[in-house]
Structures are given as C-alpha cells and as structure tokens.
Amino acid sequence: MQNITFKVTGMSCNHCVKTIQESVGRLAGVEEVEVDLKSGEVQVDFDAEKVAAVEIKKEIEEQGYDAEQIVPFF
C-alpha cells in the first residue's frame, strides 16, 4: 500500500469534498481518500499494482480541479 498527497485547488465546499472522495474512491486499487478542504490537500492510500498516481491525479482533474503531487522532503 502506498500513500500520496495532492495539493488541490478549486475546492470550495463540502460538495467538492464529496465529489473527489467518490470519484477517486471508485478507482480500482484505491483504499482510502481523505480530503481536507481547509488545507486543500487530498491524501490517497492505494495499491500501486492496480492504479498509478498519474491516474489518481487525472481523476481529480477530470472533476474540474487542479492537482499537483506534494513530494515529501525527507
């Protein structure tokens, strides 16, 4: 299982949160989707053998939002 975080712009309400949770959650291999409206971040737990990060990003963007992967600094 992997985790990825996106900075998503264009979200303004709980409907936006629900839209992203439902659309990304339907992708094969996605286990959990957490959307934080205040920070504009979307965290996704997923199986990389079933779905690629680029597919998750594309799904968010197809819902009308802009998404950029947040790369953690270690």
Automatic annotation (TrEMBL):
So which domain of life are we looking at?
Answer: Bacteria
Q: Does the keyword rRNA-binding apply?
A: no
- Which cell locations does it reside in? Cytoplasm
Q: Which residues form the HMA domain?
A: 2-68
Name used for this protein in its record: Copper chaperone CopZ
Q: Source species, please?
A: Heyndrickxia acidicola
Where does this protein chiefly localize?
Answer: cytoplasm
Entry keyword set:
Chaperone, Copper, Cytoplasm, Metal-binding
